[in-house]
Amino acid sequence: MAEPLLQIRGLVIEATSYPPGEPPREVTLVHGVDLTLERGRVLGLIGESGAGKSTIGLSAMAYGRGGVRLTGGTIHLNGREIRLADARTLRALRGREVTYVSQSAAASFNPARQIMEQVIETCLNHGLCGKAEAEARAVGLFRKLGLPNPETIGLRYPHQVSGGQLQRCMTAMALCPKPDLVIFDEPTTALDVTTQIDVLAAIKEAIRDTGVAALYITHDLAVVAQVADEIMVLRHGRMVELGETGQIIHAPREDYTRALVSVRGLEHEEKPPAPPVLQVQNLTARYRGTNFDVLKNVSVELPAGQTLAVVGESGSGKSTLARAITGLLPPSQGRITFAGRQLSADLAGRTKDDLREIQMIYQMADTAMNPRQTVGTIIGRPLEFYFGLRGAERDRRVQELLDQIEMGKGFAQRYPAELSGGQKQRVCIARALAAKPRLIICDEVTSALDPLVADGILKLLLALQAEAGVAYLFITHDLATVKAISDKIAVMFKGAVVRYGQKSDVLTPPFDDYTDLLLSSVPEMEQGWLEQVIAHRKMESAGN
Amino acid sequence: MHPILKLVVQRIALGLLLLLAVSAVIFLGVEALPGDTAQAILGQSATPQALENLREKLGLNDPPLTRYFAWLGGVLTGDLGTSLTNGVDIAQAIGQRLGNTLFLAGCAAVIAVPLAILLGLIAARHAGRWPDKLISGITLTTISLPEFVAAYFVIFLFTQLIPIFQPVAMVFPGMSFWAKLHAVALPVIVLVLVVLAHMMRMTRAAILNVMQSAYIETAELKGLSPMTVIWRHAFPNAIAPVVSVVMLNLAYLVVGVVVVEVVFGYNALGQYLVDHVTKRDLPVVQAVGLIFAAVYIFLNMLADIIGILANPRLRHPK
Q: Which of A60, A61, A55 lies closest to A94, judged by CA?
């Protein structure tokens, strides 16, 4: 039997960590992982952040990102050991035998150079073929990947094409030198769900047609189920389970895998219609210095103590709606009624009570907190500002809030950098609750979190709603989250609400075209789902 | 109109506006000095009547605004007035010295700019290791030395120990280009030493900043050599900050090198200005001040424009 393309044995990866206020220490990221990949096969690596997926993926190029060191085990690529290979050997194989597709093509393309230059650079640098042939290869790949204007798109600069197109360009860049192995590192995670499905289909087709082997890294089991032959589940740098794709999603052997498979199962009973606490009527808004409306005649209502999910792709105006409601972006038309009183359009005209009763939680808990303040100071600030609490009284209330978000004693003295992603978001929730608001605007609060952690946050938000009767305006692009938390739903597209009503009505057919596209694009944990959807869409477009 | 053209035209218009403002400031500054040109010409012992007559003759009794516009009109038509001390036409006197200044600055720039950028790239390539420390150490030493110390050191080295240059940088009309080059060799060496560090460190910092970007990792994972990564992928994105520091140093080479001129007896604009400041020759001070301001504004405007042109988002809008 021929030797495998990639064989990793007992891989140990270490790095130096610099915790705030403590001396640096050595941490082990990957504890002895074994991995075998045959030619032409696709292995999915799945796990939460910190599981070591990307680190292991990059080790196939003997590359350690940001000071990460490959300290133990062996990595055999095409039959030779590369973990200890010298820089010249590694340069010769990187780009020629193994290539890499990153999560953010927008950041991974050099903004100063044309796309074509970058796509064919590897071929020319390794002397694989001449410029004319490399360009012909690139155009062929652009066409195969379904890019518009394949002949001329290479002349453009990265900022001139969309995110989804750039991700395909990066795939073309990886395939152009005809490598033996491509590492796909979350290639569709940063894309909108409707874009993701097309890119995913393009990547899958390209893998099949070129017969290249791939490591496909993602945290989304439903996505990897579409492309991988085998799946390896990782956690904390150790392998949890390895199996054929069908076995992993239908008959997982380990508890952790079962938790990953069922994470999207959170259900929420819709509450009956009730009088609104927030009424948005015919809201139209544009940003200064632009000449088009980002919000077009938007009207929605949110009952007290309930959740309105605002769902849509990036650029659909979801966050702009939040900015208009909070007063950060005064609308050009329309009015906002809150708790029976009309709110002033701009921030300066609002009373302290108006401000207190509407709070916000953001996607990036990291940047929403002052890194030089302790958790106690961060949560205590609204208590001082709105209620004038001081000293022991304030500390007592901070502790109450910490208990509410299920974080125990001792956290008040910690700094944000000492918290995990989920804990940071919990602190932000506590800060919002401290103001005793009637409405909290949650802007993609779970998007940056791992599925299991996000699940915990959603459960917490629902529990707090039942306890405090606070209403949520929940902005998200993730339909699973919408199903899990909302009572009402507004679907936004290009600044307008295209579908709106009770959750059960919105999610029941017949759908409008856009909602149909959105709902059918959410990956399902079923092998062959992708082919079905694509075939179905082709049939429909042929029928029209 | 292409948006980038609009931006460039805007920058040029702003530059001209700034120059106008500076001319007013220079005029006001000279105006605010105690005494006036008439007093400067006639000296302390002049009678009030003689002063009055001269003021009338020079038009000094006109309102300041009229005199400002008369001066500005003259500048625009190439008439900078006449020197008080020797009655020579200022434009003519400046002409040749400005040529000398630009020759010296140009020679220093042609060596210093590429050398500084090259050293910056090498230092960035080996950041934190000995080549970086060596380059940083040497350039920091040369920038820390006062110019005249560096000048005497260079004179000692190249006229005493290895006598290949003259200590005095005399140039005069009619000299051949190569003879001139030989004459200014020592001041050029000193100026290069002085301006190297600033540009080199900015190049290094700008490159290292860009090296954090994801597209640098992409380039490394393509198997490109470190120098190719820096030159082809990092440097094009570091041009704007580097150019702005280069231009500041070029401006310094034109307007700030009076000490070096004096040490080497080089007959150029800086020395001319200092001479006439000590003699209270106000029209000359005004004229040279304006030229220096124009050089600064022009070079910084150029840096802005190059920065705009280096940005692909502005060059190729969606």
A: A61
Superfamily of domain B98-280: MetI-like (1.10.3720.10)
Alpha helices in A113-185 (DSSP H): 115-125, 131-144, 163-175
Domain containing A238 — which CATH number? 3.40.50.300
* Cα–Cα distance measured from residue A172 to residue A352, given in angstroms and rounded to the nearest whole number: 54
Please indicate, yes or no, whether residues A41 and A122 belong to a single structural domain of this protein.
yes
Q: How far apart, in whole angstroms, are the C-alpha atoms of residue A433 and residue A471?
A: 11
CB distance from A167 to chain B under 8 Å? Answer: no
B-chain residues near A110 (CB < 8 A): 215, 218-219, 233, 236-237
**Complex confidence, ipTM:** 0.80
Provide the residue-wise pLDDT of chain A in tens; the chain has 544 residues: 468 899 999 999 998 877 666 788 888 889 999 999 999 899 999 988 778 889 999 999 999 887 789 998 999 999 899 999 999 999 999 999 999 999 888 899 999 999 999 999 999 999 999 999 999 999 999 998 888 899 999 999 998 888 888 999 999 999 999 999 999 998 988 788 888 888 888 889 888 888 899 999 998 888 999 999 999 999 988 999 999 999 998 899 999 898 888 766 667 788 888 889 999 999 999 888 778 888 999 999 999 999 999 998 888 888 899 999 999 999 999 999 998 899 998 888 999 999 999 999 998 888 899 989 999 999 999 999 999 989 899 999 999 999 988 887 788 888 888 888 888 999 999 999 999 999 999 998 988 888 888 888 898 999 999 988 999 999 998 888 888 889 999 999 999 999 999 998 998 888 888 898 888 888 888 888 888 888 888 888 777 6
Pairing type for strands A230-235 and A238-244 reads antiparallel
Q: Per the domain annotation, does A515 fall within a domain?
A: no
Q: How many domains does chain A have?
A: 2
- Residue in A with minimal Cα distance to B310: A112
- Give me the phi and psi of A472, to 5 degrees please: -115, 135
Q: Is A191 helix (H, G, I), strand (E, B) or coil?
A: coil
Residues of A in contact with B223 (CB under 8 A): 90-96, 122, 125-126
Interface test with A, best of B217, B222, B225 (most A CBs within 10 A): B222
A110 touches chain B (CB under 8 A): yes
Do the domain assignments include residue A279? no
Q: Which residues contact A519 (CB under 8 A, 6 or more apart)?
A: A479, A507, A511
User: Do A448 and A314 belong to one domain?
Assistant: yes
Domain residue spans of chain B: 98-280
| Pairing state between β A471-476 and A295-303 | unpaired
Domain residues for A413? 304-330+345-508
CB contact under 8 A, A111 and B233: no
